Amino acid sequence: MQVWQDLAQAAEAFGAGGLGSSVVTIGNFDGVHRGHRAVLERVVGLARADARAAVAVTFDPHPAQVHRPDEAPDLLVGLEDRLELLAGTGLDGVLLLTYTLDLASLTPEEFVTGYLVDGLRARTVVVGHDVRFGRGNAGTLATMVELGGQHGFEVVAVDDVGREGSHLAAAGGGARWSSSGVRALLAEGDVRGAADVLGRPHRVRGVVVHGDARGRELGFPTANLGGITGMVPADGVYAGRLLRPALAATDPDHPDTVLPAAVSVGTNPTFDGVDRRVEAYVLDRADLDLYDEEVVLELVERLRPTLRFDGVDELVEQMHADVARAREILG
């Protein structure tokens, strides 16, 4: 999948002898959940049928971080993971636009003609019924259809997707698969419910940094994450997996590329901790040197909330129970 950082790169890719024309969709695609993938699969299917390029237009930073920085939502995934997940849908390219107030000031027609028509040579635009674009979000589905008639592209409207009885419905978020619904589930620590909507385990990414070494002293050496991207769920202990992308890239058959883990999120209240941390104990392994390595944690199931114990012995007993339960869940 090609990633174009600006309009000039995209226009060059679609120039003479290049990609030709495209089927395009627009969105933030935070988390690239199952609802997003339904739209993206439609884009890819239409593009393959008409021998066109399948393209998504997305934005970084998230528009809310520019317009309402104090109210911007936690992002489900960082940019690296978003692009990786988008690539997994079969897209041919992503136009990654830096979201600024200047970009936001474009009228709906200026945005569509400049980016979709002239830049990406769109012949089909796939959007949801609630699409909004252009200055003040003035553009709607009806606007897109009107512009399509004027500039020679078809508009395909995709219905909301989800299902009754989903975890989102149980959480009061309705059955529609949405990024905001996943955030609500993660805020409650319901990573299994989040996975139902995402179509995969929720992940966070970070670099392993030095901590207090308290876990090693207790017999459970942990990898402490710094520089975390991805929404950190509610405090608690989780069964999960530690992924090592760099090792997988150089030696994909290495047995240590994916490791079962028990993951702690919280402040370590038994030791009067203040800082909120994410740390992972790789089950039954004390021989790993992960310092300064970028890792990904996939969170499979919450085992329990964070608790304050009366002493170290009680804590260690519970940690043994957590590890046993994680081992059972992860298989």
Automatic annotation (TrEMBL):
Q: What class of enzyme is it?
A: transferase
Its pathway, per UniProt, is: Cofactor biosynthesis; FMN biosynthesis; FMN from riboflavin (ATP route): step 1/1; Cofactor biosynthesis; FAD biosynthesis; FAD from FMN: step 1/1
Which EC number(s) does UniProt give?
2.7.1.26, 2.7.7.2
What function does this protein fulfil?
Catalyzes the phosphorylation of riboflavin to FMN followed by the adenylation of FMN to FAD.
Under the heading Gene3D superfamilies, the entry gives: HUPs, Riboflavin kinase-like
Q: Which species is the source of this protein?
A: Xylanimonas oleitrophica
Write out the similarity annotation: Belongs to the ribF family.
Q: Tell me the GO BP annotations in alphabetical order.
A: FAD biosynthetic process; FMN biosynthetic process; riboflavin biosynthetic process
Name by which UniProt lists this protein: Riboflavin biosynthesis protein
Identify the SMART domains for this entry: Flavokinase (SM00904)
Listed InterPro entries? FAD_synthase (IPR015864), Riboflavin_kinase (IPR023468), Riboflavin_kinase_bac (IPR002606), Riboflavin_kinase_bac/euk (IPR015865), Riboflavin_kinase_dom_sf (IPR023465), Rossmann-like_a/b/a_fold (IPR014729)
Q: Which GO terms describe its molecular function?
A: ATP binding; FMN adenylyltransferase activity; riboflavin kinase activity
The reply to whether Flavoprotein figures as a keyword in the UniProt entry is: yes
What this protein catalyses is: riboflavin + ATP = FMN + ADP + H(+); FMN + ATP + H(+) = FAD + diphosphate
Domain Riboflavin kinase residues, every copy: 197-331
Q: Which UniProt keywords apply?
A: ATP-binding, FAD, Flavoprotein, FMN, Kinase, Multifunctional enzyme, Nucleotide-binding, Nucleotidyltransferase, Transferase
